[in-house]
């Protein structure tokens, strides 16, 4: 495996040729904000929060989806990037109904934490205020589309780790939403194994354990990490 | 209530400011030349709408104080039900056990707006203090910056929603 040398934020970094900019940055101790990325799942660059500047290109590139290259010069925290990241975050908040005060994930939410990290003290776009459905037909889990950011972690974890592919995305633009099986109520989706990996993977309060109330929804990702480590490294570390 | 959590610091604050308008003061008209105003709550009815424009005209620094003012928060959940008429029908007719009727006292009870909006969607706002409610230490941090004549700048966990 060939090694590549690049600079990230002026720091010389060595990386394997099949690593992404995001992985190389993390190995070098440089933190790039992410939302749709989850360790062990494929990356698709859905949330755009990990956008970075690569010298020689005017376009911003998603660090999770771009492979490192020899001599690449990457900026991860320029003023331009900060501006766009905050804008992306505000658009996510404006699109659906993220009412932190009454959310099951209040205090344990990756979206809420990013708002803190990026200094988002208000949303400059008009809120859409359109109501979405809540699906509580499953006997163990619930789905609140109002809090979904369409990161598709649930879709990917169900397909790639559990192997059930219960989840998918239907519709376009503002009408896009995650669905179970052929857009049936979750409780009637036959392919669902009720393993709960989607609930573990969700970054917001969109997927939750039934019975959890405000701020009670904490996610334990150790089971996901266990499976991913076992598969990728053949290490069964309990 | 969160403001009252400032406890004994309220004495220090009282010594430095002149409180000129508040819902719990016996004053009916918003005064002229106000330095700083803390606005709680979103803009939900005709009275709010009128008052917020008046406040903007007569105040130097507007602070959107708490999640309802900054985002609409829980008070804006009614927006999904549609225009004011639908909201009233849902609450007073469909939700009523006995004597279902929509209250109406023109000139006394202000009419609801069709959508609840955050303050900054109606008038420009200088400072935002999210939180439901913002805890006392954040309120104090903000007010100390304002009193020092600085442009308030809260960072990190001081701007947490919810």
Question: Architecture of the largest domain in chain A in CATH?
Answer: 2-Layer Sandwich
Q: What name goes with the CATH superfamily of one domain in chain B? A: NADH:ubiquinone oxidoreductase-like, 20kDa subunit
Shape of chain B: globular
Q: Which structural class fits the helix and strand makeup of chain B?
A: alpha/beta
Topology as H/E string of chain A?
Answer: EEHEEEHHEEHEEHEH
User: Strand order across the biggest sheet of chain B?
Assistant: 1-3-5
Mean pLDDT of chain B: 94
Determine Rg of chain A (CA atoms, Å). Answer: 19 Å
SS content category of chain A: alpha+beta
Chain-wise SSE layout:
The complex is a heterodimer of chains A (238) and B (162).
Chain A: E1 3-8, E2 11-16, H1 21-27, E3 51-54, E4 60-62, E5 73-75, H2 79-95, H3 110-117, E6 134-135, E7 141-144, H4 153-162, E8 167-170, E9 177-180, H5 197-201, E10 207-209, H6 222-233
Parallel strand pairs in A: 1-5
Antiparallel strand pairs in A: 1-2, 3-4, 3-5, 6-7, 7-10, 8-9
Chain B: H1 9-16, E1 34-39, E2 43-45, H2 46-58, E3 59-65, H3 67-71, H4 84-94, E4 112-117, E5 127-129, H5 136-147
Parallel strand pairs in B: 1-3, 3-5
Antiparallel strand pairs in B: 2-4
Keywords:
A: alpha+beta, Ubiquitin-like (UB roll), Alpha-Beta Plaits, 5-stranded mixed sheet, 3-stranded antiparallel sheet, 16% strand, B: 162 residues, alpha/beta, 3-stranded parallel sheet, two-stranded antiparallel sheet, 5 helices, 5 strands, globular
Account of the 3D structure:
The complex is a heterodimer of chains A (238) and B (162). Chain A is 25% helix and 16% strand. Chain A folds into two domains: 75 residues, Ubiquitin-like (UB roll) (Roll); 136 residues, Alpha-Beta Plaits (2-Layer Sandwich), CATH 3.30.70.20. The model of chain A has no long low-confidence stretch (mean pLDDT 95). Chain A has a five-stranded mixed beta sheet, covered by helices on one side. In chain A, strands 6-7-10 form a three-stranded antiparallel beta sheet. Chain A is globular and about 55 Å long. With 238 residues, chain A is α+β, with helices and mostly antiparallel strands. Chain A is built from six helices and ten strands; from the N terminus they run ββαβββααββαββαβα. Chain B is α/β, with parallel strands linked by helices. Chain B has a domain of 109 residues: Rossmann fold, CATH 3.40.50.700. Chain B is built from five helices and five strands; from the N terminus they run H-E-E-H-E-H-H-E-E-H. Chain B has a three-stranded parallel beta sheet. The longest helix of chain B is centred in the N-terminal third of the chain and has 13 residues. The two termini of chain B are 16 Å apart. The mean pLDDT of chain B is 94. Chains A and B meet through helix 3 of A and helix 3 of B.
């Amino acid at each position: 495996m060939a090694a590549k040398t690049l600079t990230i934020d002026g720091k010389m970094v060595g990386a394997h040729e099949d690593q992404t900019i995001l992985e190389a940055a993390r190995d070098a101790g440089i933190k790039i904000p992410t939302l749709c990325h989850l360790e062990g799942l494929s990356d698709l660059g859905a949330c755009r929060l990990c956008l970075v500047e690569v010298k020689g290109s005017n376009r911003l590139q998603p660090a999770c989806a771009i492979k490192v290259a020899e001599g690449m010069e990457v900026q991860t925290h320029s003023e331009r990037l900060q501006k766009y990241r905050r804008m992306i975050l505000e658009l996510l908040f404006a699109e659906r109904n993220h009412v932190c005060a009454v959310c099951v994930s209040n205090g344990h939410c990756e979206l809420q934490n990013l708002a803190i990290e990026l200094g988002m003290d208000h949303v400059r776009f008009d809120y859409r205020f359109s109501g979405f459905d809540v699906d509580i037909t499953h006997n163990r889990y619930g789905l609140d589309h109002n809090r979904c950011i369409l990161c598709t972690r649930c879709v990917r974890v169900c397909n790639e780790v559990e192997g059930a592919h219960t989840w998918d995305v239907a519709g376009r633009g503002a009408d896009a939403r995650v669905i179970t099986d052929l857009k049936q109520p979750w409780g009637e989706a036959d392919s669902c194994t009720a393993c709960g990996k989607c609930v573990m993977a969700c970054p917001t309060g969109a997927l939750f354990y039934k019975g959890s109330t405000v701020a009670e929804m904490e996610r334990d990702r150790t089971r996901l990490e266990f499976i991913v480590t076992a598969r990728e490294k053949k290490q069964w570390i309990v | 209530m969160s403001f009252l959590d400032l406890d004994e610091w309220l004495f220090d604050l009282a010594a430095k400011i002149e409180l000129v308008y508040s819902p719990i003061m016996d004053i009916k008209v918003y005064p002229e030349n106000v330095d700083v105003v803390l606005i709680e709550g979103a803009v939900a009815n005709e009275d709010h709408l009128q008052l917020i424009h008046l406040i903007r005209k007569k105040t130097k620094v507007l602070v959107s104080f708490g999640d309802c003012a900054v985002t609409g928060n829980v008070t804006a959940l009614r927006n999904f039900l549609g225009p004011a008429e639908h909201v009233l029908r849902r609450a007073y007719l469909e939700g009523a056990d006995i004597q279902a009727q929509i209250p109406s006292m023109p000139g006394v009870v202000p009419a609801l707006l069709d959508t609840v909006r955050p303050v900054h969607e109606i008038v420009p706002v200088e400072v935002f203090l999210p939180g439901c409610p913002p805890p006392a230490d954040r309120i104090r941090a903000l007010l100390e910056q304002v009193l020092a004549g600085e442009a308030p700048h809260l960072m990190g966990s001081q701007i947490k929603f919810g």
